[in-house]
Fold:
Amino acid sequence: MSVVEEVLEKVAVLVEPNEEERKRLNEIASLLLEECRSRFNTVEGFVSASIEGSAAKDTWLKSKPELDIFIHFLPGVSREAMEEAVIKIGGEVMRRIGGQSRLRYAEHPYVEGFIDNITVNIVGCYEVSIGKWISAVDRTPYHTQYVNSRLTPTLRRDVRILKSFLTSAEIYGAEIKVGGFSGYLSELLIIHYGGFLELLKSASHWRPPVIIDIEGKVNKKEALTLFSKSPLIVIDPVDKNRNVASAVTLTKLSEFILASKIFLKNPSTSYFMDKPMLVPDKLESLAEGRELFAIVFNLEEYIPPDVIWGELRRSAEGIKKRFEMAGFDVYSYGINEHEGSVAIIFELDKLSLPARFVHRGPPVWMDDALRFVKKHLSSPDTVAGPWIEDDRVYVLKKREETMVDMLLKKWLAQAEVSISKQLYKAFSSSRMIVGWKEVLKILGTGIHAPFLNKFLTSRPVFMDHILRKD
Amino acid sequence: MSVVEEVLEKVAVLVEPNEEERKRLNEIASLLLEECRSRFNTVEGFVSASIEGSAAKDTWLKSKPELDIFIHFLPGVSREAMEEAVIKIGGEVMRRIGGQSRLRYAEHPYVEGFIDNITVNIVGCYEVSIGKWISAVDRTPYHTQYVNSRLTPTLRRDVRILKSFLTSAEIYGAEIKVGGFSGYLSELLIIHYGGFLELLKSASHWRPPVIIDIEGKVNKKEALTLFSKSPLIVIDPVDKNRNVASAVTLTKLSEFILASKIFLKNPSTSYFMDKPMLVPDKLESLAEGRELFAIVFNLEEYIPPDVIWGELRRSAEGIKKRFEMAGFDVYSYGINEHEGSVAIIFELDKLSLPARFVHRGPPVWMDDALRFVKKHLSSPDTVAGPWIEDDRVYVLKKREETMVDMLLKKWLAQAEVSISKQLYKAFSSSRMIVGWKEVLKILGTGIHAPFLNKFLTSRPVFMDHILRKD
Structure:
C-alpha cells in the first residue's frame, strides 16, 4: 500500500460513522418520518415525506450527522400554503421529538432543528417530474436517486474523505459566505473521477474554466456560453441547464487546485484536522507595523446569512474601490459576521493620504487654462504653482482630510461610496478603528478574535502542511 | 493709444539703449575689430573679422550689451588650427583691450570676455556659401544679413520688448538649461508677425506643434516629418533644413503661450521686471508639510554648461523613473547648478515606502505556484500568507529598506538606476537630505537658496501678474 493510500485508510476510520452511530441516525429518521407523515396527512395536497441529503445517500460525516426531511406537495398547492404548513407542523414535529428548532431561510423558509448532535432540516418541496421544477429544491429527490444509483461502498468512503478534506480546507459549503463545494457537488466529483485520489490527481492539473459533464449532455462551447461566469462548471445529471458548481468562486476553486497539488506532494492525515487557534502574543507580532483599518457594527434585525453576506461583500468591495480611487492601495480585506456583530478589516499601504497632492489642469492651449490658473492662484489651499509641464498646467494643493476614517465618514455622508442600501445606516454609524494597535485592542479578544487571527495570518490551513511531514 | 500700447511705450524706454550706450558699444566694437584684424592677419587662412549678433542687428537690450566678434577662415583651414588660433589670439585681444576672458565651449570652443559691462565673445567660423556649412556658426553672418534686410526701427523696438518679456518670464535662451527662445528666433518671430503685440495675439491661440515658415520654403507635412519632435518649428530663412526653434521645449513653449494669454488679458510693465526674492520666513511656510528630498554634490572638474545640464536632466529623469517604479509618486523635481555645486530637489508623495507590501505570485494552475508557496512559507520576511485571490497566489512581505535615501543609495550601489556615467561617482557620494526641515536648513541659505525659493513656489513669474493691475 502506498503512503497516500495508507493516509486515506486512516482518514476513513475518522470520517465513517460506526454501526451504533448509523443505528441512532436511522432510528431518529424513522421517528421523524412517522411523525411527519401522520401530522402532514391532514394538509391539503400533501403527498409524502422522505429522507434526502447525506443520510439518504449514506455520505454523512461521522462528526456531522444530519437529516434532511423533505415534505412533498402536489404542484397545485400554493407557495404560501406550503410554507405555512412546513413552518407550523415542522416546528411541532421537532418539539414532539424533543429537539430545539428555529426558522431558516434559503430560497424559501424551512425548519432547522437539533436532536442530540444531529442537525435536522424539514423542507417543503413539490412532487414534480423532471424538468417541471417549481421550487429550487424539487430536484433534490432526483439527486438522491441519481447518486444512489452510482455510488459503491468504496466511492461512499471517498465522498466522506473528500468532504472532510474540503471542510478542513474551508472550501466546503455552497453558501455565499463560503462560496465553496456543496455535498451533492462532492458526490458528483467522486462519481465522475472514480475516487478521491483520482479526483485530486486531475484537479491538480485543472486550469479554470473547468467543465465536467458526467452524462455527456452538453458540448463544451454550449456550457461555456450558458455558464460564462463560472470557473467550475459541473452539469447536473438531472438537469442539463443547471451548473451544480455555480456557487464555487474562482478563489475557492483555486484553493482546491492548490490544496490538491500540496496534498499529493505531501500526503498526511493532518489535512483532515482542524488548525489550532493562535495564542494572543503571536497575534501582536503578526499585526505589528501593518496598516489596519476596521469597521465594526451590529445588525439591527435578523437577515438571512446568504443575504447579509451578499450585501457585506458588495459593500466591502464598494469601499475598496473608493479607497483605491482616493489613492490608497488595498492589500486585502476580510469580513466577519457573528451573531449579528459585523467586523470588516482592511489592510492598506497607509492610513492617511499625503497632505499635499498635485492637481492636473488643462493644456495651456485650452480656454480653460486661464480660468484654472486664476482659480488656483487665489485659492487658500494652493501650496505651490500653478506651473507648466509639457503642455499642461499643474498646481500643488493642500488636502483637507487625510485620515482613512475621516475620509470614509465624509464619503458616507455625501453618498460618495457604493454601499448596500440596507446597510447604509449601519455603516454610517459604525465604529471605525484605525491602526494595528487599536485593532488588536478592540478585536483581539471577544467574538471577532478568531477572525482577526485568520485575517492576520491570511493563509489557507492546507498550506501549512507543505513544509511538514507526519 | 490703447492701454497695451501705452505699456509697450513705457517698456521701450526701459529696453532701448541711449545714444551714449550705443556710442560706447560701437567704440569697443571698432577697437576689437581692429585688434582682431591686425593680430589674426598672420594666421594662415584668415579672411576677415566681423561683428555679428544683437550688436550687428541693433537688437541688444540696454541692460545686456554684448558683442559677438566672428573670425572668418577659409574652408581649407583645419578645425584644430582654427580653434587653436581663436583661443590663443582671442585671449590676447581681450587682455590687450583690458578685459577679463575665459574659455567657453559650445559646438567648438570660443573666448568669452568682459569689458566694462559688455559681454564679448570671440568665435571662429568658416567663410562659406549658403548650404556649404562646415561648423554650426557658419550660418550666423547670413542670419545677420537676413535680419538686417527685414528689420525696421519699429520692429527693432519690438524685438527688444520681446527679448525683455522672454527674459523676465525665464523663457529666453536656447541653452539646454533653459530650453527657450534664442535671440535670432525672437527676431524672426517679430519679422514674421510684424510686431510684438501681433506675435502675442497669435501665440495666445497656438496649439503645438506650431509651424512658422517665413519664406514659404517647405510644406507643413514635410516640416512635421523633418522636425517631428519639435513642438515649435521655425524654418531658418537661410537654411530650410534647419529648425531655428529646435531648442524650445514643450514646457517653455507652453509657458510662452500662457504668458501671452495672461499679458493680453492684463497688460502691465511688471511683466518686464524681475521678481523680488522671497524672504526666509515665507520659505518656511511654503515648505511646511511637503515631502522633500534633495541631492547635493560638487562637480570635480569643469564641464561645459550644455553638457552638464544634459547629464543632470537625464540623471534626474532616471531617478524619477526609479522612484516611480518603486512606488513613489514624483510630484516634481528641480535642478540647480551654481559654480560647480549641484542641487536636485524632488517633491514626493511620501519619504518612505510602506513597511509591508503585497507580492503577487503565479496563478495556481502554473507549476511555479507550489515553488512560490514553499519559498515564501519558509522565508523570514514573510508577514502573512500566502493566500489565494481569484486564480493567483499572493504573499505579504516585510520591506527591508523603506527610506528614500537608503533606497537610492542601494540602487546606486547595485547600478539599478539610470544615471549619467560621467556623474555616477558624484551621485553615489552625494549628500542626501530627507524631509522639508532638513532641506530648508541646508539649502535655505547659501548659493542654492534662490533655487529652493523658486522650487517651492513652482510658479512662473508671469503668473503672478494675472491677479494684479498696475
